[in-house]
Specification:
Layout (H helix, E strand, L loop, with lengths): L9 E6 L2 H9 L8 E4 L7 E4 L1 H4 L9 H7 L4 E3 L3 H16 L5 E5 L2 E5 L10 H16 L3 E6 L2 H7 L8 E3 L5 H6 L11 H9 L5 H5 L3 H8 L2 H8 L16 E12 L2 H22 L3 E10 L4 E12 L2 H12 L8 E11 L19
Parallel strand pairs: 2-4, 7-8
Antiparallel strand pairs: 1-6, 1-7, 2-3, 5-6, 9-12, 10-11, 10-12
Helix pairs in contact: 4-5, 10-11, 12-13
C-alpha cells in the first residue's frame, strides 16, 4: 500500500542567475551583457551565466573554452564568494520574517514551509509573492518561486516561470502537472537517467506512472521507488532548518597543467589556507581529509584518510594532504586539486517526527 501523502504549504525560492546577477548589480557596465562567473577563455569551468549569455547556450559547469566558442562576446568575471554569501544572508533574513522552517540548499535557493507562518497568511502564493518583492527591495535582485504541497513539486515548479516569476501547483493539480511533465524536468533525473528512461519508452510523467514499482526498482535500483512515488505526488520529506553540513571543501582549476608534486604542494598550501578560513568561520572540525585530483584527461581521483581525532588547523590538514599526495604515483598531469574535510563534529543523530497536515486548504 502506498504511503499517505503529507500535504504542506512549501515554497521553493530560487534566485535568478544569482552570481551573475550580483556582478551585474555591482557593476552597471556589465548589465545587459553576456557574462560568465568563473571559467576563462582557455581554462576553468563556468560557475554561473547571465540570462544574456544563456541565450547563446552558455550554462554552468560548461568549460570556459566552449562557453567562449558559443558566445564570442562573453565577458568572464572572477567569482566573489564573500559577496555572494553576504547577500545570501540578507535573503535568508527575509525568509525568517515569514517562517523559521527554512532549509537552504545553497547560497541562492531554499525551501520554506509556510503551512503555519509568522504572518498568519493562509495563502502560500501570496507569501511567495511578498517574499520575492522583499528580496527585490532588500537586495535589488529578482527571485523565482514554486509553491506546492511538497518539496519535490515546489522545486520543479520554481523553474517554470523563470526569471522573476512564480508558479503554484494546487493539491488537485499535482498529478496532472507531473503527468504532463517531460521526464528530464523531474528533479533527481540527470542526463544519464533521462537517456535510460527514453530507451525504456519513458518520456513524460504519464509514461513513468504506468511503470510498476518492481519494474522501476529493477531498472533504477533504490531510485526506482523514489520515481514511483514522486510522480504520484508523494514526497513526505520535511523542510529541515537544521540541515547538517556533511563536508567542507575547496578546489582550484589551474591555468596550466601541473606535473610536479612540488608545484602541487604550493597550490595545495593556498587551497588549505582558504579551507582553514572557512572552517574557522564555521567553527567546524572534521576527521576525514580528502584530496581530490582531476587529471588532464578529466578523470577524477580521490584519496582519503580518516584520523582518530577532529582537526581544523591548516598545518594538520596539510600534513595529511602531503601524505595523500605522495601515497601513489600520479598517472598524468593535473588540472584541478581540491581538499575537503568530512566526518564533521557538527553531525548529530536523530530525526523528527512527520506531522500530518489537513488535506484540504487553499494555496
Amino acid at each position: 500500500m502506498d504511503p499517505i501523502p503529507v500535504l504542506r504549504k512549501i515554497i521553493h525560492v530560487d534566485m535568478d542567475a544569482f552570481y551573475a546577477s550580483v556582478e551585474q548589480l555591482d557593476n552597471p557596465e556589465l548589465r545587459g551583457k553576456p557574462i560568465a562567473v568563473g571559467g576563462g577563455e582557455t581554462r576553468g569551468v563556468v560557475s554561473a551565466a547571465s540570462y544574456e549569455a544563456r541565450k547563446f547556450g552558455v550554462r554552468s559547469a560548461m568549460s570556459g573554452f566552449l562557453a567562449k566558442k558559443k558566445c564570442p562576446q562573453l565577458i568572464f568575471v572572477r567569482p566573489r564568494f564573500d559577496r555572494y554569501s553576504e547577500i545570501s544572508k540578507r535573503i535568508r533574513q527575509v525568509f525568517h520574517e515569514y517562517t523559521d522552517l527554512v532549509e537552504p540548499l545553497s547560497l541562492d535557493e531554499a525551501y520554506l514551509d509556510v503551512t503555519h507562518n509568522k504572518k498568519g497568511n493562509p495563502s502560500a502564493t501570496m507569501i511567495a509573492k511578498e517574499i520575492r518583492q522583499r528580496i527585490l527591495e532588500v537586495t535589488g535582485l529578482t527571485a523565482s518561486a514554486g509553491i506546492s504541497i511538497n518539496k519535490f513539486v515546489a522545486k520543479v515548479a520554481s523553474d517554470y516561470n523563470k526569471p522573476n516569476g512564480q508558479k503554484t501547483v494546487n493539491p488537485d493539480e499535482v498529478e496532472p502537472f507531473l503527468e504532463a511533465l517531460d521526464i528530464g524536468k523531474f528533479y533527481g533525473v540527470g542526463k544519464v537517467t533521462e537517456e535510460k528512461m527514453y530507451q525504456l519508452g519513458i518520456f513524460t510523467g504519464a509514461d513513468l506512472k504506468l511503470k510498476s514499482i518492481e519494474y522501476l526498482t529493477e531498472h533504477f535500483g533504490k531510485s526506482g521507488a523514489y520515481y514511483y512515488y514522486v510522480v504520484r505526488g508523494i514526497h513526505n520529506s520535511e523542510v529541515k532548518p537544521d540541515r547538517t553540513v556533511k563536508s567542507v571543501g575547496t578546489e582550484h582549476t589551474f591555468n596550466e597543467n601541473l606535473s610536479s608534486e612540488i608545484f602541487m604542494e604550493e597550490k595545495l598550501e593556498i587551497i588549505a589556507n582558504e579551507l582553514d578560513r572557512r572552517l574557522k568561520k564555521s567553527k567546524i572540525a572534521g576527521k576525514t581529509v580528502t584530496l581530490k585530483i582531476k587529471y588532464s584527461d578529466f578523470t577524477v581521483q580521490t584519496r582519503s584518510k580518516t584520523l582518530m581525532y577532529f582537526i581544523s588547523d591548516k598545518s594538520l590538514i596539510m600534513e595529511t594532504v602531503r601524505e595523500l599526495l605522495y601515497q601513489e604515483k600520479l598517472k598524468d598531469s593535473v588540472r584541478l586539486l581540491g581538499i575537503s574535510l568530512a566526518n564533521l563534529n557538527n553531525e548529530v543523530a536523530g530525526a523528527k517526527k512527520t506531522v500530518a497536515v489537513q488535506l484540504k486548504f487553499d494555496f
